[in-house]
Write a structure and sequence with these properties.
Blueprint (H helix, E strand, L loop, with lengths): L2 H6 L10 H18 L3 H4 L2 E2 H16 L12 H18 L2 E2 L9 H14 L4 E2 L4 E2 L2 H9 L7 E5 L5 E6 L3
Parallel strand pairs: 1-2
Antiparallel strand pairs: 3-4, 5-6
Helix pairs in contact: 2-5, 4-5, 6-7
């Protein structure tokens, strides 16, 4: 192997970030630079929750079927890239105000519990509902702590435990 190639192996692989990501993110940053000034987040601190809220609004518009931001004419994904980049840069520059609540919530735990329940079984038939186990009701029973070691609840559509079954791994 060429010595220069060997040296390159230890460098940040900038080539892995797709060009379209950089281009579209830059276009959204240019839109913001016109409105607020370039690199404004380096001059004055920014509040994390405002930027997360902006990202969530773009995501909600996308989820609702809108592809292009009506104000900028750019794809919502471009604004997500730009906003995420600004958050990362502000954090590194020391201008990010982390205004999240001091006490953590349970969203991460609930999401992990839901995903774990989804992995358990959707193939086994639950005779109480005459079909595939209602995974959402199944999950509700589990997060309320109604399980024994190695057993998972089988619930009816109302979330009531009808019986327990052995955990399938």
């Amino acid at each position: 192997m060429n010595p220069k190639d060997i040296a390159a192996l230890s460098r940040v692989p900038l080539h892995l970030l797709p060009a379209v990501t950089r281009i579209q993110g830059a276009m959204a940053c240019a839109d913001g630079a016109v409105k607020y000034g370039p690199y404004n987040w380096r001059e004055k601190p920014i509040a994390l929750l405002f930027y997360l809220g902006a990202m969530e609004r773009h995501i909600l518009r996308m989820m609702d079927g809108e592809d292009i931001d009506p104000k900028s004419g750019l794809r919502h994904e471009a604004h997500l890239i730009a906003t995420a980049g600004i958050i990362l840069d502000a954090r590194e520059c020391g201008t990010l105000i982390d205004d999240r609540p001091a006490k953590k919530g349970r969203a991460s735990v609930l999401l992990e519990e839901y995903e774990a329940q989804r992995k358990l079984t959707t193939v086994n038939q639950d005779p109480t509902v005459g079909g595939v186990i209602n995974v959402f009701a199944y999950w509700l029973c589990a997060i309320h702590g109604r399980t024994e070691a190695g057993l998972v609840p089988c619930c009816d559509r109302a979330g009531q435990i009808t019986h327990e079954m052995e955990l399938i791994k």
